[in-house]
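Quick one:
INPUT:
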């Protein structure tokens, strides 16, 4: 299927071609005809599936080319970053139309936004809090809203905006078309849909389990203590022009940013504890090239769209494999070639194996000073590898606490019975431990050389 099959206005089709789009994504293919027919819709789809275009293109088609300058379409989003991204997409897709789009959000002085609103608009992208402020002050009216979009409804629920969403929906026209998008469908979101939508069409897009083929993936297996040094070396490589580094926690993002700064690599962190002003400043500096490394958590990264992102680094592997796909999918967009490098230590092997099982392939190993060999005990990685890794770790810890030449107490008590009960699994674990000890020993010089490089950089 092609975009021209939707019979969109020529101005919209030209804008789609200009944006480099060729074939619609699954959610676009399913949602656009539904929205053009005027039906309400509830869609379960994650970020990175193309859902913004899925509702933006039909909205532009339905509103036509009129210049009425009254708010006929309202898109509610949970965060400032997502609001700005959607606003920019509407400008991109509607570049050849006379429709006007305005974006309002909190955390900034209202003056410039009010100036934009005073000129009127056809499409309004807003966060709930700032929108209610303006409505309460009589600065705008929602009585003409005939198209209402609730984007990332589950996040609005998490952030406590659902009450505001209900209030805003009550201000729009009763006879309207309502669209709800959510990555997950908790009971509260289902109840909200029952309240606000009329006989909706339901669409569920399966999570993406395959990364785009324009992203080159690799894995660097190492010990946890070496991750910062290895990351600094990777970020200093030629060709790493603009990159996002993912961490699992907010504190970890801040700590890593400080450590990279000490090493002479300018980086800023972005996460939920930052003010909107701080997040926006970091994004603007990153997009402009003022800094080339942005450190982010998964939650804060939702809604970030950075063109020409050369690299994604997973400093820590995510809890769920779908997040891995979304992370690395920020590179290699619009046909560009990108690269994703994941740093993994023994404690993260289970997450690694989950990722590889989902993709049905192993990540190729990247050999660099400080990395150590990873011996997978079964194809694609599975629980056996995890158990062997845990056994190896336990054996190393036991070796540290047992004097040289001594026999561990439990092994001595079991005697020959212990050998029998261990069987093949025990021998494999022992061999695994021996290989790991040998690998660590053989790479100790490399570890010291990396530390020396970092010390010289920070000095």
């Amino acid at each position: 299927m092609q975009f021209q099959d939707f019979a969109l206005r020529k101005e919209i089709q030209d804008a789609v071609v200009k944006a480099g789009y060729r074939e619609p994504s699954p959610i676009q293919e399913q949602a656009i005809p539904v929205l053009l027919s005027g039906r309400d819709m509830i869609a379960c789809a994650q970020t990175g599936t193309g859902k913004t275009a899925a509702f933006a293109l039909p909205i532009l088609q339905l509103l036509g080319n009129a210049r009425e300058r009254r708010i006929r379409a309202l898109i509610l989003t949970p965060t400032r970053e997502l609001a700005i991204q959607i606003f920019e997409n509407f400008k991109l897709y509607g570049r050849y139309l006379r429709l006007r789009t305005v974006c309002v959000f909190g955390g900034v002085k209202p003056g410039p936004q009010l100036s934009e609103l005073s000129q009127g608009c056809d499409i309004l992208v807003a966060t709930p809090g700032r929108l209610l402020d303006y409505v309460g002050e009589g600065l705008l009216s929602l009585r003409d809203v005939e198209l209402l979009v609730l984007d990332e409804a589950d996040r609005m629920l998490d952030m406590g905006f659902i009450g505001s969403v209900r209030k805003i929906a009550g201000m729009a026209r009763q006879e309207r078309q309502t669209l709800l998008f959510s990555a997950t469908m908790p009971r509260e979101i289902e109840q909200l849909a029952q309240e606000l939508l009329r006989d909706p069409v339901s669409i569920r897009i399966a999570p993406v389990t395959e990364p785009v083929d324009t992203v080159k993936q690799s894995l660097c297996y190492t010990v946890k203590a070496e991750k910062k040094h290895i990351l600094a070396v990777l970020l200093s490589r030629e060709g790493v022009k603009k990159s996002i580094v993912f961490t699992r926690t907010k504190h970890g993002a801040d700590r890593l940013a400080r450590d990279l700064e000490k090493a002479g690599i300018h980086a800023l962190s972005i996460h939920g504890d930052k003010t909107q002003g701080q997040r926006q400043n970091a994004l603007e500096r990153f997009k402009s090239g003022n800094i080339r490394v942005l450190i982010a958590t998964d939650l804060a990264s939702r809604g970030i769209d950075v063109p020409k992102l050369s690299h994604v680094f997973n400093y820590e592997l995510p809890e769920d494999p779908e997040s891995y796909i979304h992370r690395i999918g920020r590179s290699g967009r619009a046909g560009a070639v990108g690269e994703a490098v994941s740093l993994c230590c023994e404690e993260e092997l289970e997450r690694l194996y989950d990722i590889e099982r989902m993709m049905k392939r192993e990540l190729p190993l990247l050999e660099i000073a400080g990395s150590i060999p990873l011996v997978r005990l079964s194809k694609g990685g599975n629980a056996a590898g995890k158990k062997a890794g845990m056994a190896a770790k336990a054996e190393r810890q036991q070796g540290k606490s047992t004097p040289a030449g001594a026999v561990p107490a439990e092994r001595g008590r079991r005697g020959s019975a212990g050998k029998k009960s261990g069987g093949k699994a025990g021998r494999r674990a022992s061999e695994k431990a021996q290989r790991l000890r040998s690998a660590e020993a053989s790479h100790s010089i490399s570890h010291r050389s990396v530390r020396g490089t970092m010390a010289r950089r920070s000095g």
